[in-house]
Structure formats: structure tokens, C-alpha cells
Amino acid sequence: MALPKAKEDALAARLAALTLPAGKGWLAALRSEALARLTAMGLPARRDEYWRYTDPTSLNVPEAPVAVRFEPGDEAEPFDGMDRLKIVFVDGVFDAAASDDLTLSGVTIERLSQTGGKDIHWAQGLYGQLETRGQTPVARPLAALNSAFATDGVLIHVTGRAAKPVSLIYVHQSDTSDAILHHCVKLEAGASLTLLENGPAAARFSNVLEVDIAEGAQFHHIRLQGRDHQRRAVTHLFARLGARSEMRSFTLTANGRLTRNEAVVELTGDEGRAHLAGATVGDGDFHHDDTVFVTHAAVACESRQVFKKVLMNGAVGVFQGKILVKPGAQKTDGYQISQSLLLDEDSQFLAKPELEIYADDVKCSHGSTSGAIDETALFYLQSRGIPRRRAQALLVLAFLAEAIQEIADEDIAEDIRGRLERWLARHGSNG
Amino acid sequence: MLEINNLHVKLEEEDKVILRGVDLKIGPGEVHAIMGPNGSGKSTLSYVLSGRDGYEVTEGSATLDGQELLEMEPEERAAAGLFLAFQYPVEIPGVGNMTFLRTAVNAQRKARGEDELSAGDFLKIVREKAKTLKIDAEMLKRPVNVGFSGGEKKRNEILQMAMLEPRMCILDETDSGLDVDAMKLVADGVNALRSAGRSFLVITHYQRLLDHIKPDVVHIMAAGRIIKTGGPELALEVESNGYADILNEVG
Fold it and tell me: Which domains are assigned to chain B?
């Protein structure tokens, strides 16, 4: 089907500014296929069902809009002091000097840009493949664009228990950088890995993470999207879970002009468990969108979506979350909660929770709320001598607690609580 | 200690006058009780003194040890030594009772220029005080007042009072919703805090609480004013004859 003229023009303009990375190996063919998918779909537009609440223009335009890097300097880097294998990208370019040696017991790690030219590679079965599956029933053209044009990324093959977390660090330096990274993680049966991601990455960042979690394997993912105020990011997490496997993914977003985090998770083996959580705090010129699609395609799987947003001074939060229970996926336990705390009347939360269920023996619940801070609770705390700002921070942290509880590692959870508390202290509005 | 002069208060949102010239003077170490029918303004008085939003003071003053209370933020009033035991203690999901208590104690110490209590010292003190109020470790761990019974909530109020050591304590219908045993426990907790330097204002509907917390002075409040003041015998009079006689007598 031909694309509407506006879409065709937008796509042509974007493609004119991009070049398919050269090469002949396994990756080249996958890139061409991704480009074909993108060409068929066109870039997202405001009229598309899942882009009604978020304007994709700044993600579509050929040049990344200028985003001045932000120098926090007042707090330690996330995961500082943790024993981890660091892989650093500066504006999307691998920084060998800042990165650790890529050897880790139980894991092989390679860079996409160095393996793409080989004739065969294990990642052939994964790169762009979960992304392709995730294009139905909802098109995700920016993910296809990423698969076609990603300049680098890591391919992580986990065969045992990873000796320590792999930590991807995204440094933003140039005000006009436009980074496209694509990572694949394959966990063999019974393997386990914790993947950490942190940093703003670039003025505009496109990131795709495809994760294949085999039977009994465990994947933990913690992401902090930096504190840059002007950066834009579109991320996609595609995951497929086998029997009795587990994934937990938590994202902290503070600041950023535009963030679109999509998660597409498919439970394909019995008794799998997928937990997705996000804590978001935004002040002012801030638009944050979580778009989640969880498919139950097997028996007795559990999924949880816990997304909490604290918004002030005109910040906008979006949540579009779906649970699809396929025929035969009996004993499904699906839970979804999206809530926003609006600290003033200028801020906005747009939520679209969806359930689609084709099995009769399932437990699915969803809830979405949007509200102001509880003034009665605030007064109660103040009447005990707790200053208003501190009282408000306590209540905000309490609001976010359910999302933070999804982090398995208590030290990381504590560190994130501290970051949120400091953020709230810096941004205390309403007195 | 606490001195209220000609206090007039109306609701901010509606043009409804609640207090119409309240005068009250409580000396150090004294226990005063305010009784009165529903809607007489007793709870409003406690909220206005502690700084809750929604009320507008149109006339009068309220001072604690000579400091004007009505211009302070609620937390400043608390740091100055004022404490309100709520009629309906607020549930705060997600905030642990212990975290709450420690934050409050240390915030007040900080406001007074004192060092914060160490985690160890705090724990020791809180455990000791909780024990006398029959508050177990589990209740301290749970979120503030969430899932607490009526009696547990009121005991938790008294625990906060014991930890914060205020100079002026207001008890707003602390007996409401309590059975006889729970009331005794709460009253014992209050009595244990009585001292020469600490005063109490006990707001209640019923005389029975005053059997346990013996007041020095009893005030009857009606239609936003204190209409009669006397000794403990005044409470007994109310108990046997109701408010009607007093209202008629004054009115």
C-alpha cells in the first residue's frame, strides 16, 4: 500500500540524510530487510494510533535538534563503586580507552560494528528478528530505522551466570550528536545476566535492545537515562521469554525534553515472568512516553507493568500499556498500573491502558490514576515538624515506591531513592 | 504557655464563621479540657492552632510562650513545641512509621539547632517508648497508620507525642473510637507525659476520658465561643445533664 504523501516526504528527507553502513556480511542483509520494513511503514506521524499523545517530529527530522549537554557534577555516577564490566559510548561512538576489556566469565561480548562483516554469526537469529515480530500488530518504524542504520552496539551471548553486570555507559558530548545503537542479548537456558544502562547518550538517541531469554534464564535490566534536560531519546526493548525464565526491567527517567520508551515483551514458554517498571520525574519542558506491549502466549505466566510519573510545571507524561492474552494462555496473571502525581495544575498525564484477552482462566488487572499530592497527609507530616519540602519528598518517594520495589538489587534501589530525593530537593515546587 | 485572645476564624472557601472570639489561657503544667456539642468549633480550634490550610483568621491572636503561632508554618509550630494528636490520624502508604518518626524527631532537633539523633540512639528510645504503649515492632515497621485499628492509630499518636516531647499538647477527641481498655492505655500514655513544663488541651465530647486524664480546668464551648469555665465538676455536670442546661443558662 502506498504511503500518504506527507509520510513519503518525511521518510525521503530522513533517508536522504542517512547511509546504510557498508559491508557484506550477515548484517548487511538484515539491514536491507529492516530498511524495506521501514519503507513500507513510513515514519510515525501524529495521526498514527500510538503516536496521538507524543509528537514524533523531532525524532523524524533528518538532523538531531540541538541539545546542550548537561554537566551534573554534583553526584556520583550511577553504579559507581559497583563491580561491573564497563562499555562506554560517547555520542554513540565506542570509547575503547574508557571501556573495560570485553571478556567476562560466562559471557561473550562483541561489538556489532566489528562482527557485522562475518559470514555467519549467532546474532543473525536475533538482530532485527524480535523487532520484526514486534511490528505486529503495532508498527514501530523507528525501531526498523534503528535496525537498518545502527552504527554500533554490543552482542552479548550469555551461556552461564555472568560473573558481574555488564554496564553500558552513554556519554553525551556534542550538542548535535545523533546516535543509533542496537544491542542483542541472548541468554542460553539457565543463564543469567544483569545489564545496566546509563547516561543521556547524545542530543538524539535511538536505542534498540533485543533480548532472547531461554528456558530458566534470568535477565535483569536497570536503566538510568541521565539528567540532560534537552536530549531526546527513543528506545525499544524487545524481549522474548522461554519457559520459567524471568526478566525484570526498571527505568529511571529524570529530565529530557522527549523520551519515548517502548517495551515489547512476549512470554512464549510456560511459567515465565516479566516485570517492567519505570519511575519518572519531570519538571517543565519534559515529555515522557512509556509504550508497553506484553503478550502472553503460554500458560501460567506472570507479567507486571508498574509505571509511576511525577510531573510539575507543565511536564507531560504518557502511558500506553497493553496486555494481550492469546488463546490458550490460561492461568495468566497480568497486572498493570500506571499512575501520575501532578504537582501542579499545568502538568498533564495521558494514559491508555488496554487489555485484550482470548483465554477464560486468567487474572488480569489494570489501573490508572492521576492525582495531586495528598494535602491531608502533607499537613500531618508538617504538623510533626517535617518541613513542607521534605514532607512532599517523602510522599513523592512513597508514590514511586511500588516501581522502585521492582528493582531486585537493594543497593541499586537505595541509590535510586537517593537520586530521586536529591532531584526532588532541587526541583521542590509548591513551596 | 498557650494564650488565645479573641480568636475569630472563618472557613476560607465558604463564608462560614466558626470561631467567634475564643479566649483561653493555659499555664505551664496545666491540663485544660474543652467540651461542647457537635459543631461548636472544638476541632477547628485545634486545626487553626496547628496551622491547617482552609481557615482564615479574621481577628485575634494565639501565642505559645509569647511567640505568635498564627503566622508560622505548621512545622515551625511543631518545632516551637506544639503538638496535635489528630482525631483521625492520617494513613500514609509507602512511608514507614519508623522513617516518619525519625524524620520528624530529627527535623525538630535540627530546627532547634540540636544534633540529629543517631540511628542507634533513636532506635533505643523509640523501642522503649513503644513498649509502654504496647506498640510492637511490627507496627513500627508498617507504613504510617496503614491498616492500624482505631486504638493502634491513637496509640501511635501518643507515641509520636512521647518522641517529640512537645511543651503544648492538644488532644482532639483522642477517645473517639476507643474501647475502655484502649482508652485507659492512651490515658496512661498521656499521664506519663504530664510534667510541670508541659501543658495539655484535651478536646472531648465525653466526660469519661477525663476520669483518666484529670483536668485542672474545664471549658464548655458552643457556637464558636467558650461559654463557661470551671473545675472538673463542670464535666460531671455535662455528663449528667447534657449541654442543654448550660446553653440555656448562658444563652
Answer: 2-250 (3.40.50.300)
